[in-house]
Amino acid sequence: MTLKDQIIARIRQDGPISLASYMTDCLLHPTLGYYTTRDPFGVTGDFITAPEISQMFGELIGLSLAQSWLDQGSAVRFTLAEIGPGRGTLMRDVLRATRNIAGFHTAIDLVLLDASPTLRALQADTLQGYAPRWIDSVADLPNQPLYLVANEFFDALPIRQFLRVGSGWSERRVGVQGKELTFGQAAPGHLDALAYRLEDTKDNDLVELCPAAAPIIATISQRIATHGGAALICDYGDWRSLGDTLQAVRSHEPTDPLADPGQADLTAHVDFEPLANAARAAGCAHPKLTTQGVFLERLGITARAQSLAKGLTGTDLDALVSAHRRLTRPEEMGNLFKTLGLYPPNAAPPPGFDL
Ligand code: SAH
């Protein structure tokens, strides 16, 4: 039975489901989910991410985290963590770039969180020699200083969508018509979690909520506020988004999110405001949300590209130049992608941010 047949059978029996429930099945169904069953990255895959575009991304993230570790007194034991590590490329670049920083590597307790057994196996392969261990929930992060990175993790968390109706909200749901999945709307009601969006929306506007995101940030922030550390949360999105940002991508092309459940990547823009609020409530500080282009420039991506360019000619040089552009140019990934930095209020902010 395909995942689509299973979802249709469930809806026929129990009624329409929320978009979050649909996304969870599509991405993480134990045997038929998108991430659970494949390696989706790269030119031959469905999409490409910043660490897969160039080693420079992970190197600069690594140096930013290491600078925070130095600024905060070089703890002799700390968690270096990544959530949603994909192929493990970003962490491999972080580790390579920091290997000459005295005392850093010997202090690392390397921890990864990923829901996909397929990708965990790839991560183990990429990170051979570094002894990572995997946890199933951020609640399992050890009680010690925490230096953490997440790239394109939060955009994969399930969202709910709501249409404004008067001062209430009608949830968008996935139902069935004939043999196909379709979108429908639930009856409108009052929703406390969206009270703050009554100020910047009007009738028929669509807003999104990502219920899983704030609790994850709260747990990470609690570790950092209590024990020290820093987190770099990189993703596409904005402080506060408006409208339908659900996106399905297959073989680098947009596709209908309801057409082939489990066969396409489903993501949504990250709303950073609720993440920043959760971080502050848990005792962390954060600099201004900063665009990826500015963040990487401040960390020295152009100098790094120039140094890498020295040994290169021909297509290798062209590839490096185009990777630098793609990561930083405003019309490419430079503006759409943002970084949120978390740190203890009594420490120096991580480098790279607009203050
Ligand atoms: N950071 C990587 C991969 C991004 S794709 C990169 O930049 O290339 C999203 C990653 O998050 C995948 O590794 C996927 O398996 C993982 N993931 C998605 N949803 C998850 C969840 N709910 N819990 C844990 N891991 C999840």
Q: What's a quick, concise take on this entry?
A:
By secondary structure, this protein is of the alpha/beta class. The protein has 13 helices and 16 strands.
Layout of helices and strands:
Layout: H1 3-14, E1 17-18, H2 19-28, H3 34-37, H4 50-53, H5 55-71, E2 78-83, H6 89-97, E3 108-113, H7 117-126, E4 133-135, E5 146-151, E6 160-165, E7 168-177, E8 180-185, E9 206-209, H8 213-227, E10 229-238, E11 247-250, E12 253-255, E13 265-267, E14 270-271, H9 272-281, E15 290-291, H10 292-298, H11 301-309, H12 314-328, H13 330-334, E16 337-342
Parallel strand pairs: 2-3, 2-5, 3-4, 5-10, 10-14
Antiparallel strand pairs: 1-7, 6-7, 6-9, 7-8, 10-16, 11-12, 11-13, 15-16
Helix pairs in contact: 5-6, 8-9, 11-12
This protein binds S-adenosyl-L-homocysteine.
Number of strands: 16
Rg is 21 Å
Main sheet: strands, sense, barrel:
8 strands, mixed
Unreliable segments of 5+ consecutive residues: none
Strand content: 15-25%
Polypeptide structure, described:
The chain has 355 residues and is α/β, with parallel strands linked by helices. The protein folds into two domains: 3-32 and 160-208, no CATH class; 50-158 and 211-300 and 334-342, Rossmann fold (3-Layer(aba) Sandwich). 36% of the residues lie in helices and 22% in strands. The chain is globular, with a radius of gyration of 21 Å. The N and C termini lie far apart (53 Å). The model has no long low-confidence stretch (mean pLDDT 96). The chain binds S-adenosyl-L-homocysteine (SAH). Residues 27-28, 35, 41, 49, 51-52, 84-86, 90, 113-116, 119, 151-153, 156-157 line the site of S-adenosyl-L-homocysteine.
